[in-house]
């Protein structure tokens, strides 16, 4: 036998953007060794006739910081063709940390990323203090796919400044030097870079702003300089861009001070529907001036799932619903179907409600809210929103919402479109995807586990934009390159994302005719019985990490070849 594995007769999208072609792929000792007409046999042979053969997806914006320390399976991503994830995004994470600050970091992650604090308290082993020790802990844990991590600003700030850092006080020169040293140590140990958050949307579970929100330009540039001292590393950030000129001066200063690439979250927001275009223009101008910057953009709306078992639902601030909110789902459904309780609930919805709850200002936006069925429709017609259906039928919108949630024995969802859906379609998402300085990202895999299930972004990118959309379809080979080589390069990986001799053997074999997402479902399988949304897809015949099969026909094989990916020395 010449090879460990030979995949034959597949339609190859090799990750470079080259035209699709029929080819065999041979693998030995975890690497691709031959592409084309492979004569030698393999210990394992797969006939991929009629299927797409592509590199494994590289998802550079996830939040598996906690899950990766206790769970060998990084679902939902690893069930959906993803073979490498990067977490520690948006300035939140669990290292460096002192014992007395563990709860603070959990509360921050719970609030910012909607991961149950009870699950984090029970699941995190805390066998680290420094960031290098955290990486070592990740390296010791077997898992199905590869992972890498940013060093997060929130944890750094709390570690360096204590209560002052958590409270967002201005950092002194000594504080900045301490954080720069932490960043330098972390990247030297293998962190892919440094991440920070500058958005008011990021708050702890008790409502405090993220510690990095008001960090000064001097602080950010000082940390960036610490990263630059290693000769490698990426700077990742999210911002509200409320004052674009002022904020851009800070970002440009980070890039000029460090010479390191910036990766910036960009989306179209309903309240400022054109700002994303101005940000993309500035990113393009920065690249033209020799300052490498990349926009991370989403392939669809960043939408929220509302349901009786979710974090949010339209009745969560209703005082009558509060009477049963803590009951098991089956009991809730039984009570909600009682005519008298239903009448009381709907009558109370027009009265006083507690809108201070997290999400309380979103759950009445019925004009952007859609029933979410099977298969899920991520580009729904605006005429089908609850608001429009209520106007057309005369049925009160809250009744339509309640009936939608009670579907499937109370497992019904409503899909609330947020970013990238101002015009009631995904044309603007496409416009961002094809920008020359953008890559697909922002899936938040592993996060928002009771509200969002966007770890399926890479699958949606291929199925919607490459196969299903009636207008504006994009070439499959281009989409594959964007989700593999392009994303890998964005975080400094040069060994994966391409199927060519010498490259890492992370592969997907995909039945394009069957490729489709199913509606997410709630599972209670986190530590302490915590709930999370998981999503399945049809069409993934085989997924390999380093030449070892981890998924076959939608089922895990039990193999755990995943490893920690450390940034490489220059």
CA distance, first residue to last residue: 37 Å
CATH H-level homologous superfamily name of the largest domain: Metal-dependent hydrolases
Average pLDDT reading = 96
> Largest sheet, if any?
9 strands, mixed
Structural category? alpha/beta
Could you estimate the helical fraction of the residues in percent?
25-40%
Number of strands: 25
CATH class of the largest domain: Alpha Beta
- CATH-defined topology of the largest domain: TIM Barrel
- Count structural domains: 2
Tell me what portion of residues adopts beta-strand conformation. 15-25%
**What's the gyration radius in Å?**
23 Å
Q: What is the CATH architecture term of the largest domain?
A: Alpha-Beta Barrel
Q: Which geometry do the CA atoms define?
A: globular
Low-confidence stretches: none
Number of helices: 16
3D structure, described in words:
It is a single chain. The mean pLDDT is 96. Helix content is 31%, strand content 20%. It is an alpha/beta fold and 570 residues long. The chain is built from 16 helices and 25 strands. The strands form six sheets. Strands 1, 2, 3, 4, 5, 18, 23, 24 and 25 form a nine-stranded mixed β-sheet that branches. A six-stranded parallel β-sheet has the order 9-10-11-12-13-17. It has two domains: 57-301 and 422-517, Alpha-Beta Barrel (TIM Barrel); 307-419, no CATH class. Helix 4 (153-161) crosses helix 6, helix 6 runs parallel beside helix 7 (217-228) and helix 7 (217-228) runs parallel beside helix 8. Strand 20 and strand 21 form a beta hairpin. The protein starts with a strand and ends in a 14-residue tail after the last strand.
């Amino acid at each position: 036998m010449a090879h460990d594995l030979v995949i034959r007769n597949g339609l190859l999208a090799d990750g470079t953007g080259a035209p699709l072609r029929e080819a065999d792929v041979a693998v030995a000792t975890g690497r691709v060794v031959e592409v084309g007409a492979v004569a030698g046999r393999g210990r394992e042979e797969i006939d991929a006739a009629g299927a797409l053969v592509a590199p494994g997806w590289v998802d550079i914006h996830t939040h598996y910081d906690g899950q990766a320390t206790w769970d060998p399976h990084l679902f939902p991503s690893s069930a959906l063709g993803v073979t490498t994830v990067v977490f520690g995004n948006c300035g939140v994470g669990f290292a460096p940390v002192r014992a007395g600050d563990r709860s603070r970091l959990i509360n921050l992650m719970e609030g910012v990323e909607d991961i149950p604090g009870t699950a984090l308290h029970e699941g995190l082993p805390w066998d680290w203090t420094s960031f290098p020790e955290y990486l070592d802990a990740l390296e010791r844990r077997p898992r199905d796919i590869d992972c890498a991590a940013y060093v997060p600003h929130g944890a750094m700030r709390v570690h360096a400044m204590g209560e002052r850092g958590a409270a967002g006080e201005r950092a002194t020169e000594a504080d900045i030097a301490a954080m720069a040293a932490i960043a330098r140590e972390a990247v030297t140990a293998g962190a892919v870079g440094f991440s920070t958050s500058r958005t008011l949307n990021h708050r702890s579970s008790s409502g405090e702003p993220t510690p990095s929100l008001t960090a000064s330009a001097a602080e950010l540039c000082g940390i960036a300089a610490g990263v630059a001292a290693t000769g490698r590393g990426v700077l990742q950030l999210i911002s509200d861009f409320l004052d674009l000129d002022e904020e851009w001066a800070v970002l440009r200063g980070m890039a000029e001070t460090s010479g390191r690439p910036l990766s910036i979250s960009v989306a179209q927001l309903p309240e400022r529907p054109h700002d994303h275009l101005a940000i993309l223009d500035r990113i393009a101008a920065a690249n033209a001036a020799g300052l490498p910057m990349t926009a991370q953009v989403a392939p669809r709306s960043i939408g929220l799932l509302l349901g009786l078992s979710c974090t949010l639902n339209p009745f969560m601030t209703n005082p009558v619903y509060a009477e049963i909110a803590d009951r098991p789902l089956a009991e809730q459904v039984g009570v909600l179907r009682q005519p008298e309780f239903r009448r009381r609930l709907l009558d109370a919805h027009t009265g006083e409600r507690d809108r201070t709850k997290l999400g309380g200002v979103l759950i009445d936006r019925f004009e952007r809210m859609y029933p979410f069925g099977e298969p899920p429709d991520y580009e729904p017609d605006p005429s089908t929103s609850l608001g429009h259906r209520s106007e057309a039928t005369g049925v009160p919108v809250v009744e339509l919402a309640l009936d939608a949630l009670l579907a499937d024995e109370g497992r019904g969802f409503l899909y609330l479109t947020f970013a990238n859906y101002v015009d009631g379609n995904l044309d603007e998402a496409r416009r961002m995807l094809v920008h020359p300085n953008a890559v697909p990202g922002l899936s938040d895999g592993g996060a928002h586990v009771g509200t969002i299930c966007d770890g399926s972004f890479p699958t949606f990118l291929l199925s919607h934009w490459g196969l299903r959309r009636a207008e504006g379809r994009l070439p499959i080979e281009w989409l594959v390159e964007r989700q593999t080589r392009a994303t890998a390069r964005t975080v400094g990986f040069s060994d994966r994302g391409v199927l060519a001799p010498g490259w890492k053997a992370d592969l997907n074999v995909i039945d394009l005719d069957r490729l489709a997402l199913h509606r997410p479902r709630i599972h209670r399988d986190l530590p302490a019985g915590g709930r999370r949304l998981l999503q399945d897809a049809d069409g993934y015949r085989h997924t390999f990490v380093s030449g070892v099969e981890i998924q076959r026909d939608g089922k895990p094989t039990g193999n755990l070849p995943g490893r920690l990916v450390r940034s490489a020395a220059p």
